[in-house]
């Protein structure tokens, strides 16, 4: 049988492999019951994880530094890391805090070894938890979440795996195209594309307590979790007509950052001062309801664009519901633009012609 040809890493994957980024996703899952250790290895060996090419490939570089995926035999034992002891000897430290500290340490000091496929599963036996570590070069969030769900089983039918609703690019674009809608799409696309160009070439946000600084990648890290009940978020959603859960989440983020800056910022901020963030937008055309056929037309790997999401500082008793209303108004405009598609295409072209290092340098990096 002929030897398999190395597969080039996608432009987005090459960006995530840059030493300045080296993006590893750490996902923790907790169980109410003891983890059945004897069944973990057989389950992985029979799972879809070892069917898909990138999860059984090494990342290699050629003589000029270009990255490729090379098929290899997977030794599951090297990807399973069992930790039986408690992570903290202090009995007052909860399981959640102990796992959070473990994740913070992993994100700062434990890159994935390059001599095996870029994924690991850490089993924290004493804490009834598991940590999935996957390099972002293997795929975007939608693809990796579908892969993770392939390990799970439905409560009503344990023989079946949960299905994930497909995410379509059309969900971020209007369903009905009219002349006014087309005019809005052109207008908002031009405005937001010019904004991104200005952010890359010239304009920067004012330094605040959330801006980081030189050498931020070496600073000590602390991971904390916050819980929001879905029912409560739906109540807020109903209070703002035609809003979505994403609008509510971004409203919470906006209000929370304003309150944080009101307490921690060393310099007084002006009311309404802007802090720019960025988020990734899925650009997949196909549905991911099934991963069983890895030869299907569904594109694996990374396929997303980036949009800028401004947050405005309000430190004087702003009604949190107003934050949700403002978030909805802004995100509705973003949905009427091709900003995400533009950033995806530009990043693709820059990486193809000039390399991932250049793409990393010109990427907008605000707060």
Task: Outline the structure in words.
This protein has 367 residues and is an alpha+beta fold. The N and C termini lie far apart (52 Å). The protein has 11 helices and 9 strands. Residues 166-170, 286-290 and 293-298 have low confidence and may be disordered. The longest helix is centred in the middle third of the chain and has 23 residues, at 179-201.
How does the SSE layout of this entry go?
Elements: E1 7-8, H1 11-16, E2 24-30, H2 40-45, E3 57-61, E4 67-71, H3 76-79, E5 80-83, H4 95-109, E6 119-124, E7 129-135, H5 141-149, H6 179-201, H7 230-239, H8 245-264, E8 274-282, E9 304-312, H9 320-335, H10 339-354, H11 356-362
Parallel strand pairs: 5-6
Antiparallel strand pairs: 1-4, 2-7, 3-4, 6-7, 8-9
Q: How would you describe the shape?
A: globular
Largest sheet, strands/sense/barrel: 4 strands, mixed
Mean pLDDT: 80
Count of strand segments? 9
Stretches where pLDDT is under 50 for at least 5 consecutive residues are 166-170, 286-290, 293-298
Radius of gyration: 22 Å
Q: Which key phrases capture this entry?
A:
single chain, 367 residues, alpha+beta, 4-stranded mixed sheet, 3-stranded antiparallel sheet, 9 strands, globular
Summarize this structure briefly:
With 367 residues, this protein is α+β, with helices and mostly antiparallel strands. It has eleven helices and nine strands.
């Amino acid at each position: 049988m002929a030897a398999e040809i190395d597969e080039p890493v996608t432009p987005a994957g090459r960006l995530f492999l840059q030493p300045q980024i080296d993006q590893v996703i750490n996902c923790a899952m907790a169980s109410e019951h003891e983890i059945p250790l004897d069944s973990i290895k057989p389950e992985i060996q029979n799972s879809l994880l070892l069917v898909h090419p990138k999860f059984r490939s090494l990342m290699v570089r050629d003589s000029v530094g270009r990255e490729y995926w090379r098929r290899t035999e997977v030794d599951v034992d090297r990807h399973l890391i069992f930790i039986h002891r408690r992570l903290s000897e202090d009995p007052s430290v909860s399981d959640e805090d102990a796992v959070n500290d473990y994740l913070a340490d992993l994100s700062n000091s434990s890159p994935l070894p390059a001599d095996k496929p870029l994924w690991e599963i850490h089993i924290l036996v004493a804490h009834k938890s598991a940590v999935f570590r996957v390099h972002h070069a293997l795929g975007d969030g939608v693809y990796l979440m579908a892969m993770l769900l392939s390990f799970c089983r439905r409560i009503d039918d344990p023989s079946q795996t949960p299905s994930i609703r497909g995410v379509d690019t059309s969900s971020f674009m209007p369903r009905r195209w009219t002349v006014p809608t087309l005019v809005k799409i052109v207008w908002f696309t031009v405005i937001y594309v010019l904004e991104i160009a200005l952010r890359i070439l010239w304009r920067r946000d004012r330094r605040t307590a959330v801006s980081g600084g030189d050498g931020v990648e070496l600073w000590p890290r602390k991971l904390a979790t916050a819980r929001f009940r879905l029912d409560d978020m739906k109540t807020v959603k109903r209070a703002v007509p035609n809003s979505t859960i994403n609008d509510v989440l971004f409203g919470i983020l906006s209000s929370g950052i304003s309150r944080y800056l009101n307490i921690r910022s060393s310099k007084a901020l002006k009311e309404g001062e802007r802090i720019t963030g960025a988020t990734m937008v899925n650009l997949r055309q196909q549905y991911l309801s099934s991963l069983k056929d890895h030869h299907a037309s569904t594109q694996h790997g990374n396929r997303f664009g980036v949009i800028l999401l401004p947050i405005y500082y309000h430190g004087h008793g702003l009604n949190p519901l107003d934050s949700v209303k403002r978030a909805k108004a802004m995100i509705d405009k973003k949905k009427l633009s091709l900003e995400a598609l533009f950033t995806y295409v530009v990043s693709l072209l820059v990486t193809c012609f000039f390399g991932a290092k250049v793409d990393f340098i010109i990427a907008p990096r605000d707060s």
